[in-house]
Design a protein that fits this description.
GO terms for molecular function: ferrous iron binding. This is Fe-S assembly protein IscX. The structure is a single chain. This protein has 63 residues and is mainly alpha-helical. It has one domain: IscX-like (Arc Repressor Mutant, subunit A, Orthogonal Bundle), CATH 1.10.10. Helix content is 56%, strand content 0%. The protein is globular.
Length: 63
């Protein structure tokens, strides 16, 4: 997965953190959690605030 795979990342986060309300996740934590996902392989520097916000919104939609 890359940072642009927003929907796949959101699904993986839902599975990896089922008890977390994504609305209250800080971007610093979100960044670390995405980097730790199985199958994620992208540069940590490629994720800006807009990318993290898009991931968070997609994750909220999954829950």
């Amino acid at each position: 997965m890359k940072w642009t795979d927003i929907q796949d990342i959101a699904i993986s986060l839902t599975e990896a953190h089922p008890d977390v309300d994504p609305q209250y996740v800080r971007f610093t934590d979100l960044h670390q959690w995405v980097m730790a996902l199985d199958g994620f392989d992208d540069s940590p520097d490629r994720a800006g605030e807009k990318v993290l916000e898009a991931i968070q919104m997609a994750w909220i939609d999954e829950v």
